[in-house]
Amino acid sequence: MKPEIPLELTASLRAARHVVALTGSGISAESGVPTFRDAQTGLWAQYRPEDLATPEAFRRNPQLVWEWYAWRRQLVAEAQPNPGHLALVELERRVPQFTLITQNVDGLHQRAGSRNVIELHGNIARTKCFNEDLIVESWTQTGDLPPCCPRCGGPLRPDVVWFSEPLPPHALQAAWQAAASCDLFFSIGTSSLVEPAASLPYVALRNRATVVEVNTHPTPLTPYAAFSLRGAAGLILPALVEESLCSKRGNFL
Ligand code: APR
After folding, report:
1. pLDDT tens, residue by residue, 131-160
2. Which end of the chain is least crowded, N or C, by CB within 10 Å?
3. Buried (b) or exposed (e) across 34-63, using 16+ Cβ within 10 A?
4. What's this model's pTM, rounded to 2 decimal places?
5. Any idea which residues carry the catalytic annotation?
6. Residue 219 near ligand 1, beta carbon < 6 Å
7. Element (DSSP H or E) covering residue 174
8. Which residue puts its alpha carbon closest to atom 7 of ligand 1?
């Protein structure tokens, strides 16, 4: 059944000059990538992400953390972008200015074809040296887990932001600026719990932007959103783009 899209929202999207979309793990759920707060499965069921995605966990057991990310990299490699990712690619093509900010590290937005993507929490496909904090493109496979940095011999780690670590300053600055200058802000598939990403919709609100939430469940942001579309992003986003930017009633943007 096609999701109902409020007429006022389609009008806002057609009139918008700068649209921002903030995404969380919910947009990748329909690609088969577990959300951050989904129960972990199989070998990893006994662990909580919060207990693995930290510098302390890595120092305590680098091999365990490295292998968890290797498992997640495999999951992501087998996943495909879903209609929710693809609808945001279409949106980027059709609105005058579009900024995609993601908390996801799975790279599925880029694989779907999104071009202007701000990765607030890094990307699981990139690897960096734990000591130098510099990207490492290749290394000698010695069987060591984690592998060693070819420059300093230190352990390698995924280029993602762990709990208690600062976000990449340039990414955060760009996200903040986009939220402060947009006229339409979508919060999609995120529990709106983890800072500083969770503050971005409120920055947009202070700038009198229209805030729209797309989520299967309510979140702390729900009461503040002008529109709260309850349901799967993979169903709602294509309907929203179709209704707003390709509909008989509306103008093509
Ligand atoms: N469509 C839309 N929303 C969905 C879908 C879906 N198909 N499936 C799940 N959701 C919603 C859930 O209701 C939840 O609100 O997506 C949200 C996922 O929330 P989390 O698992 O908390 O993930 P996220 O918000 O991305 O976490 C933010 O916190 O754990 C850290 O760094 C990690 O980037 C992550 C950040």
Report:
1. 999 999 999 998 999 999 999 999 999 999
2. N
3. bbbeeeeeeebeeeebeebbbeebbeeebe
4. 0.94
5. 121
6. yes
7. helix 169-181
8. 232
Record the tokens describing residue 173, joined without a space: 């600055």
Which residues of the chain carry a pLDDT beneath 70? 39, 41, 247-253
Distance CA 95, CA 252 (A): 10
Determine the distance from the C-alpha atom of residue 121 to the mean position of all C-alpha atoms in its chain, rounded to a whole number.
8
Q: What angle do CA 191, 194, 200 make, to 5 degrees?
A: 85
| 229 φ/ψ angles, rounded to the nearest 5 degrees | -95, 110
Percent of the chain with pLDDT over 70: 96
Strand bridging mode 184-188 / 18-23:
parallel
Residue whose C-alpha is closest to residue 12's, from 235, 190, 204, 216: 204
Q: How is residue 228 written in tokens? A: 């709260």
Within 8 A by CB and 6+ apart from 179, the residues are: 20, 22, 101, 185, 200, 201, 203, 204, 207, 209
| Ligand 1 geometric centre to CA of 33 (Å) | 11
Which pairing describes strands 227-230 and 210-215: parallel, antiparallel, or unpaired? Answer: parallel
